[in-house]
Write a structure and sequence with these properties.
Elements lengths: L1 H24 L42 E2 L4 E2 L1 E2 L2 E5 L19 E5 L2 E16 L9 E5 L2 E11 L3 E9 L2 H4 L5 E11 L2 E7 L5 E11 L4 E8 L27 H4 L8 E8 L2 E8 L18 E8 L5 E10 L11 E15 L2 E13 L6 E12 L2 E13 L7 H4 L4 E18 L2 E13 L5 H4 L4 E11 L3
Antiparallel strand pairs: 1-2, 3-4, 5-6, 6-7, 6-8, 6-24, 8-9, 9-12, 10-11, 12-13, 13-14, 14-15, 15-16, 16-17, 17-18, 18-19, 19-20, 20-21, 21-22, 22-23, 23-24
Length: 472
């Protein structure tokens, strides 16, 4: 409880400071930052624009190049291109749809522009609250993350972006993380974490990105992070608009986006119009149990990713990676990971949006069968009310769930299904921050061979108070 009090004090201190600064630097500009974007296949608004009509035009946004002017104030561009909007920014170098809602607030100082974002959920969570099995748990905690970006032009065609992402999970979740049935990955005190989500490191991203624009359609970008995120998978779950309201990580996290914290990353990317091809060299080993230190960079793994945004509403990607020895407890196991995803964003009006993501991931250890995961998540915001859902299918093995191979077999694959329904409702504002109350329920479909451990149809639930920035 002392950690929850500590993070509460810190968060409200940040809120007060940021709100005061926001009033000084950005008076009456928040309304100008609410970008109403939509796919204009059926729209006739393009006739009123100075730029040629395209299917991915967005109402109120100048996509003709460079940073955008919003009511006399420059807006950040994408970190990967000065000719793309900030809405495309995902985690690391990944892409979101241009029409994605943007939460946070901006500050200006000289040639630099700054954007701040974050999320914290003070909650009580309980998994298997019906006591059908013996692998559940409950906890009072506060999953959280805080992010800052600084950006400035370099010459006529260059753009420099600096990213910092931090989490106080080491305090609020401690080393053994929070209960989450069927979650696997990483370790605590030399034992694998099973049915628990590991905490994130204090420093989750310290990265720089430089982009040079050859033209409005072509860019070359270089990204380095220590830690950072290589070009593998979709936007990490906490940054996806379709998942931002859900405090829990997906149970397929280590099949899709677990590499979002990697100690040592170098990525080069080339964009041509709506496509981007990237390649990364990075450290395969996942963060160690000391969540405050900087792990040794090795650059022993690689990945490649192809992104395609066909319109303002869609972001598609496929990626493949070789990850050397990701788990410290299985140092001789290497993984080939393949992912594909589609993300959709549709603005519906003032503070009304719909966002969805479909995702597939495959982990393949050489000499073994591959294990698949699939996810669909959707979120609809109607001003103060936010409704969301997530469905997952994941294949977990005997080793992943730390089961006795004499009883369950050496290479047995267990299919797991989970469906979550949840809601947030904004209670009030503190400056540029929303304070929302929420809750969710998760139902797990369990293989009959695991009923003795998990029971038939265990459920997880939680209630929380969430603090997050307003829409820009």
């Amino acid at each position: 409880m002392k950690y929850v009090i500590a993070i509460s004090t810190l968060c409200f201190g940040l809120i007060y400071t940021a709100s005061a600064q926001q009033k000084m630097d950005m008076s009456d500009t928040s309304k100008h930052h609410r970008m109403v974007m939509k796919d204009t296949v059926k729209s006739k608004m393009n006739k009123k624009k100075k730029m040629p009509a395209k299917k991915d035009d967005m109402k109120g946004m100048d996509m003709s190049g460079g940073s955008m002017d919003m009511g006399g104030m420059d807006m950040m561009s994408s970190a990967q291109s000065k000719n793309l909007p900030m809405g495309r920014n995902g985690s690391g170098t990944s892409w979101l749809p241009d029409a994605s809602p943007m939460y946070g607030f901006m500050l200006h100082g000289g040639k630099w522009m700054y954007m701040l974002h974050g999320n914290v959920s003070f909650r009580y969570t309980s998994h298997d609250f019906t006591n059908k099995g013996n692998r559940g748990g409950n906890k009072v905690d506060a999953p959280n993350w805080f992010m800052g970006m600084a950006q400035r032009p370099v010459g006529k065609n260059g753009l420099l972006s600096l990213n910092l992402m931090m989490s106080l999970d080491p305090l609020t979740e401690q080393g053994y993380g929070y209960p989450l049935l069927f979650q696997t990955g990483e370790s605590w005190k030399g034992k694998p974490l099973v049915d628990r989500q590991h905490p994130h490191d204090l420093f989750s991203e310290v990265a720089a990105n430089y982009t040079y624009a050859f033209s409005k359609k072509t860019d070359l970008s270089i990204y380095v992070g220590y830690p950072g995120e290589p070009a593998i998978g979709p936007v990490a779950f906490m940054h996806r608009p379709s998942a931002m309201s859900d405090p829990d990580a997906p149970i397929g996290h280590h099949w899709s986006d677990a590499t979002h914290i990697t100690f040592g990353v170098a990525t080069i990317g080339f964009r041509y119009d709506k496509f981007k091809i990237e390649g990364s060299s990075f450290t395969g080993r996942e963060p160690d149990e000391d969540r405050y230190n900087f792990d040794k960079p090795k650059f022993d793994s690689w990945s490649t990713r192809l992104d395609y945004n066909p319109s303002a509403n869609w972001a598609l990607q496929v990626s493949h990676a070789f990850i050397k020895s990701p788990e410290a407890l299985s140092p001789d196991e290497n993984i080939y990971r393949t992912t594909a995803s589609a993300t959709y964003s549709l603005p519906l009006g003032d503070q009304k949006t719909f966002n969805a993501t479909a995702l597939w991931g495959l982990n393949k250890i050489p000499g073994q069968r591959g294990d698949n995961s699939a996810l669909f998540e959707g979120d609809i915001r109607m001003k103060k009310l936010d409704l969301y859902t997530r469905y997952e299918f994941v294949q977990k093995t005997t080793a992943e769930l730390v089961l006795n191979p004499l009883i369950y077999g050496d290479d047995t694959i267990f299919p797991v299904n989970a469906i979550t329904l949840g809601l947030n409702y904004d209670l009030f504002k503190i400056g540029q921050f929303n304070v929302a109350a929420g809750g969710q329920l998760t139902y797990y479909g369990v293989d009959t061979r695991l009923h003795s451990l998990y029971g038939a149809g265990p459920m997880g639930g939680e209630v929380f108070l969430r603090i997050y920035p307003s829409l820009m």
